[in-house]
Amino acid sequence: MIRKDIKSFAKSIPNDVKLVVASKYYDVDDLSVLVEEGIKDFGENRVDSFLPKYEYFKTMGVCWHFIGHLQRNKAKKVLNKIDYLHSLDSLELAKMINEVREKKLPTLIEVSVNEEENKNGVKIAQLDEFVQEVLKYPKIDLKGLMMMAIDGSTEESLHHQFAKLREVRDHLEKKFQIKLPELSMGMSHDYKIAIEEGATMIRLGHIISEEYKN
Ligand SMILES: *Cc1c(COP(=O)(O)O)cnc(C)c1O
């Protein structure tokens, strides 16, 4: 069930930060409550659960973000249905986007800021080379970077991890003379810190629910 104070909760998020609701915990009835409140940015992380939700909300102006690892054998089914990809993590997927996508896809690269703990995403040491390749693909509209912080980090460590992504972004902008305005970072338990460190998109799941206790 969606929290009853969703409207004021959404209002508490700064205007220049986009709330993307991580929709994996919610069915179409829950999500309909959000749509009625004008909250229409949803992020799914599995193809199988994305497709029925996409069909259900097709005419309702929902903006679909894909935020999970996109397996190449399923990617074709979603690539022309999503509005945003937060989780570009391989050059094989980049190549496939370029082949399959009809128009430019706004895309973020998922970065493994914590290489030992977090296996998802591109390692910082490989990022320059990765970006150089991605920029060759005209169907990819590179908008920024995405990350997940380590579970159970201290506040200080979270600041450090999120700041790291911002620094990496600044480096890439300078090196390639491009603009990477979007930083997708921050989840239910750490989004406030992420915003302090420059997040432009936060992906919130549990905290949207009435059952969430803080
Ligand atoms: C589930 C999920 C979230 C939201 O997590 P919460 O802790 O419930 O806010 C954010 N990003 C990704 C990639 C997710 O899979």
Structure characterization notes:
With 214 residues, the chain is an alpha/beta fold. The chain has a single domain, classed as Alanine racemase (TIM Barrel), CATH 3.20.20. Helices cover 36% and strands 20% of the residues. Strands 1, 2, 3, 4, 5, 6, 7, 8 and 9 form a nine-stranded parallel sheet that branches. Strand 3 (63-66), helix 4 (72-78) and strand 4 (84-88) form a beta-alpha-beta unit. The protein binds pyridoxal-5'-phosphate (PLP). Pyridoxal-5'-phosphate (PLP) binds next to strand 9.
Count of structural domains: 1
Mean pLDDT rating: 96
CATH fold-level assignment = TIM Barrel
CATH class descriptor name? Alpha Beta
Head-to-tail CA distance between termini: 16 Å
Order of helices and strands: HEHEHEHEHEEHEHEHE
CATH superfamily label: Alanine racemase
Question: What would a concise description of this structure say?
Answer:
With 214 residues, the protein is an alpha/beta fold. It has helices at residues 6-11, 28-36, 47-56, 72-78, 91-100, 127-134, 155-176, 191-196, and strands at 18-22, 41-44, 63-66, 84-88, 105-112, 122-123, 140-146, 182-184, 201-204. Strands 1, 2, 3, 4, 5, 6, 7, 8 and 9 form a 9-stranded parallel β-sheet that branches.
Fill in the keyword field for this structure.
single chain, 214 residues, alpha/beta, TIM Barrel, nine-stranded parallel β-sheet, 8 helices, 9 strands, 20% strand, globular, binds pyridoxal-5'-phosphate
